[in-house]
């Protein structure tokens, strides 16, 4: 599956957006306030975003919850339904652009769109490409028992199980190794 630069950026953005949600009541929301949203927009180099407000923050949190539903969807039909809702509500307006030193690519949000519509349109279309390609199962949650972070499995054989092999994956492998050693010396 060919993944263009703008699609990869949208995938990274949607994963970070979903993972900004608190996993439980004790966790801190990664989009706690408008300055946090502004940092998110800046760090993901989102173009055509105006002055942000509390309204934008609320709208982005709603979009984030819908994206989380896509990563939890049991099948392609359910994911497609959620993606269709997001993209339609955003008033998708595909257009070619070549800004900020990037070659021609497609933006799906309308000029002047809110940040929530921008995210819903561009990120929704990036996820749509996976459903269309029959690759919805690549939209995953980490299998570590204490982590449910979202990620997109871009491995060739669709075998990635953890959001980060150096943290979650390694931690589980070390724990399994120690359990085997303890049982062997038992």
TrEMBL record:
Transmembrane segments: none
Superkingdom per UniProt: Bacteria
Residues of the Zinc finger CGNR domain: 138-181
InterPro entries, sorted: ABATE, ABATE_dom_sf, Znf_CGNR
Family matches, as PANTHER family: BLL6575 PROTEIN
The protein's name in its UniProt record: Zinc finger CGNR domain-containing protein
Source organism of this protein record: Streptomyces lucensis JCM 4490
């Amino acid at each position: 599956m060919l993944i263009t630069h703008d699609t990869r950026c949208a995938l990274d953005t949607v994963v970070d957006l979903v993972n900004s949600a608190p996993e439980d009541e004790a966790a801190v929301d990664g989009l706690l306030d408008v300055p946090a949203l502004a940092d998110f927009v800046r760090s993901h180099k989102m173009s055509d975003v105006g002055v942000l407000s509390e309204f934008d923050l609320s709208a982005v949190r709603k979009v984030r919850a819908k994206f989380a539903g896509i990563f939890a969807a049991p099948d392609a039909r359910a994911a497609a339904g959620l993606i269709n809702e997001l993209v339609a509500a955003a008033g998708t307006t595909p257009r070619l652009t070549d800004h900020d030193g990037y070659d021609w690519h497609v933006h799906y949000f309308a000029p002047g769109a809110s940040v929530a519509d921008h995210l819903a349109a561009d990120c929704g279309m990036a996820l749509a490409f996976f459903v269309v390609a029959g690759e919805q199962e690549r939209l995953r949650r980490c299998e570590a028992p204490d982590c449910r972070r979202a990620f997109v499995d871009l491995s060739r054989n669709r075998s990635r199980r953890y959001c980060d092999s150096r943290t979650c994956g390694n931690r589980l492998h070390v724990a399994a190794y120690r359990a085997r050693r303890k049982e062997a010396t038992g």
